[in-house]
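Let us practice reading a record.
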Amino acid sequence: MSAIINEFITLRNDLGEWDIDRINTELQHLLVTNGYVWDAWKSQGQVIKDGKLYPDYGVDLNLTSNNDLCQTLHDRLWKYSGRYYKDATVEHAELSTVLPEIEGTYLAGMIAHFQTIFGPIRVRLHNRVNLVGLYWHIDKNSENRFHLPLWTSPGHFLVWTDQFSTWLPSFDPEDCKKSMKFNAEFIPADGKVRLLATHDIMHGVANIGVGWKNPRLQSRCHLTFWKI
């Protein structure tokens, strides 16, 4: 196994330790006071506002956006987030303004702190629900990403490998005849920031759950940011 895959996760104590309970409370307040159902998004990855389900939105949520391109909170939260509303003409650098709805909060102060260190950054939440993982991939279009888990369960793991050097849209059947080595690690919600080599190393997400009871209620959410 290549030594490089043992360097996928780096703990960054220099970036501080953060009160994730306070952050989660502020996030819940942001959604609830604007008509969204917090538990539906947290546990099921569903966006429900004022009783209406928005199936085109989902698990990823923006904390930085663009007030000109996204003139409503609804768009600022979800437009250009993850695979939703992809637009090749919009660069990450255009999505680096902190949501005005969180100005003055502890969360906004934390983002401002990171901005003083790294300059402009893009900040998103990545919520994984319902025993759903994420395929092998490399984040080609961004710098290596910093992760701060906000909630999790011991059934959620980050996995990485040196098996492939480029992202593949599918797999070669010949790959199934070869052995494959990979690393997996659980990242605790301990308020600490970790740097992941997401731009450099093939990685994915696995959620095997923690038991048979209520497996669809086991979500995990990471606050992620990267330099732009």
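A brief commentary: The mean pLDDT is 87.
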